[in-house]
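REQUEST FORM: STRUCTURE PREDICTION
Request ID: SP-0412
Submitted by: Lab K.M.
Chain count: 1
Length (residues): 569
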Amino acid sequence: MPLPKPPHKKGDLLAAADYDVPAAPRAQRRSSKAAAAADTAALVALQLHDAAAGVGAAPAAAAATARSRGHDGATAALLSPKPAAARAPAPAPAPRARKPRGDGPAKLFVLDTNVLMHDPMSLFRFDEHDVFLPMITLEELDNHKKGMSEVARNARQVSRELDQLASFTDKAGRFDAKAGIALAATGHREAGGKLFFQTTLFDIKLPDGLPQGKADNQILGVVQSLREQQPGREVVLVSKDINMRVKARALGLAAEDYFNDKTLEDGDLLYTGVLALPPDFWDRHGKTMESWQQGGHTYYRIAGPLVPALLINQFVYLEAPGVSPLYARVTEITGKTAVFKTLRDYGHGKNAVWGVTARNREQNFALNLLMDPECDFVTLAGTAGTGKTLMTLAAGLQQVLDERRYSEIIVTRVTVPVGEDIGFLPGDEQEKMGPWMGALDDNLEVLARSDGSAGEWGRAATNDLVRSKIRIKSLNFMRGRTFLAKYVIIDEAQNLTPKQMKTLITRAGPGTKIVCLGNLAQIDTPYLTEGSSGLTYAVDKFKGWPHGGHVTLARGERSRLADFASDVL
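STATUS: Completed
RESULT:
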């Protein structure tokens, strides 16, 4: 195939306004007969127009000359002289403004300090609505900016964002706080509103029972004054403090929680990673199904109404009376077809992982993910006693010591106490993290007892070898690290914030597998809920990724006492 000719002149540079201009509509293809008929009609209309207007026949003659020389209608139109108004370039259309989601004036959201310290980017999460910051909010931000905690870092980040916004001035070089600052000025185009600061002292009138010097009550007074000053506009207080929202509603003020940090409104809507096939699956999909065997697994290619509801690495099962059960995983989705791959049965003793076998359907699904070298990120959720830590640790030891797929196991977790803090712990990092890793020691004891033929000396030697391949790391020292060919276990991941979860997952280097374990019913971190937990965030963002998977374990296998306590308590 010959190469195209090189350009003989330099290209023109686009103006700044040209980047926002929408693309021109694509011209419709016409057949040669339709194009010839349209050109003939246009030529006749042009001749009639010229005759009626008293203009000379030069344009028609030029078009006729062009046709006699073999040119088409488009070339004839190009050769015809055009009026000056037609030759003038059309002005570039203005960029389209952001369409508001609702009718009426934009709302005015008054932010509490805890919202800014919870999400530093909350200023830009209110779409076309405006944001108001009371002066007491800025004072509280200044009081919390010192330290190395997550709250202090967020307070400093908010201060930097506010400083950048406050640096924008008008044409005269003045900072006009009363007119408001466009939140999109710093590049956050999703924010269409303005930022207002409190610049005057409001005449706050609160009930006598509320102390005037408390910060929360001052913010409530600001909200009440704004509502009186702007009666035609809805003024809403946004706070993470439940008691403050209750007081605001008791005073007749509109108050809301900050919902933008919640991945899901209801924890029951969380992706489970498992889908039960309908009983008539074979009847509806069996006619067009293709099947083949490869590498000890059976593959099924299906096409039908079920395909749009499937995700990559989602487990499907079919258990119906009179039909052989099917347990498979979705490995490929192409257009309107999907490919199922049957699973390895880890419930059988010959497929035991470090002496551990699956006791139920979900545990078998989880072991298939944990033992898959192509699956780099696994999340396991479930109530207490479902076997999350035991299966993960057994799969890690199998792949580190026997298969040599990873070099070592790294275990970490958030150090959030259930009760009162017992104070500082002595020793180095490994010794300080020891009391937090009681679940790890318990599961290692169970795995050591699984080998009954080794004897006392053999179990002791195995235990020493196992512990030499396990490293316990603190979450506080993870920033900037890179794990190469490691098997990383993040225990109690429900206590992580989305930002902490991102920090841990981005530590993974080549050949590293990360497994997150958690129970969303046992969140101990303040201000975290099932919808805003880092585990929920990771499950929702990674679903459908070809190298990640999730399983929600349903049935407990620890003991009958633990199962009954999980149900009734």
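NOTES: The longest strand covers residues 326-334.
Reviewed by: T.R.
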